[in-house]
Specification:
The protein is mostly beta strands. Helix content is 12%, strand content 49%.
Length: 295
């Protein structure tokens, strides 16, 4: 099912969910052809215009987007004991730690969440556009996280961060026509009167964007499931990429039929120490990474 709620011009909320139990299938399917897993999925997606919290004269545009989804696949029977229903095995566990352990060894869970602010700006502009007008500036930020757990994977986490700042200035000024007051307007004189010089560029833009991607994977040692320390018998694998992109462009039409365009770009990679960036599981390496990036 799904649900959609509109909060006037402030925002929207969309929610959806789906549940499929073991044995579900079409009428003409045999038992062996039907699903033997219990499937649960739900998601929430929202968008709000936070600029509504500011006075109307401020002309603040601050759109916020947030989404969350979770998907769980549970087998009908316990893979570790095929004659026992998984729900019965979980109920039979004495402590919450034992229940979680059974779920981790049998279920597949995928969780995703994201938050973003796109094209946030203050739409205040001078009567004659000026380089310092607030409307020339805008910024954005986005964060995405995906977490997966299954019988063979203790956890697999992927995180991505993006932040950007842009500047666009489009000056408006009348072209300079030094010969427009000539009395004659015939022959070559007509073309001389039409001569116009634009002494300012038609647009100037600048964009800077920082991106960081981090992936971390911890596999489960399937040969030592009974060992409480089996989670740590296999090493953690991780990778990261931190980049900084900058671009600048200028467009100028000094004469009516003469256009000049210039654009430049820089792609840089920010060096990071090759350590596990996980504040919860490895605080010392996290502090080492944080100090290195701040430099």
């Amino acid at each position: 099912g799904s649900l959609s709620v509109a909060l006037s011009d402030f925002g929207t909320i969309n929610a959806a969910g789906r549940i499929t139990t073991a044995g579900f299938g079409q009428i003409d399917q045999s038992i062996g052809e039907r699903s033997m897993d219990n499937y649960t999925q739900y998601s929430v997606a929202t968008s709000f215009q936070l600029g509504k919290f500011f006075p109307e004269k401020a002309q603040v545009n601050l759109p916020l987007y947030y989404s969350y989804s979770r998907e769980t696949i549970s087998p009908e029977y316990n893979p570790l004991d095929g004659d026992v229903h998984l729900s019965d095995a979980i109920d039979a566990a004495v402590t919450s730690a034992q229940k979680d352990s059974i779920r981790n060894l049998t279920q597949q869970r995928v969780t995703s969440k994201s938050i973003a602010v796109t094209n946030a700006h203050v739409n205040i502009q001078s009567k004659t556009p000026m380089p310092y007008d607030p409307s020339n500036f805008s910024f954005g930020y986005a964060y995405n996280e995906n977490d997966r757990k299954d019988p063979e994977t203790v956890y697999e986490t992927t995180k991505s961060y993006q932040g950007n700042l842009s500047y666009i200035y489009t000056p408006y000024i009348r072209p300079f026509q030094p010969f427009q007051n000539l009395e004659k307007s015939n022959g070559y004189t007509r073309y001389i009167k039409q001569f116009a010089l634009n002494y300012l560029p038609s647009s100037i833009s600048f964009l800077t964007t920082m991106n960081r991607n981090y992936h971390e994977l911890q596999l489960r040692d399937m040969d030592h499931l009974d060992d409480e320390a089996s989670v740590q018998t296999l090493p953690v694998t991780f990778s990261s990429l931190f980049t900084w992109d900058r671009s600048f462009s200028i467009r100028w039409s000094p004469l009516t039929n003469l256009n000049v365009d210039f654009a430049s770009g820089t792609h840089a990679r920010i060096d990071e120490p090759h350590v596990q960036v996980n504040k919860k599981l490895n605080r010392s390496d996290y502090e080492l990474w944080k100090d290195s990036v701040k430099r």
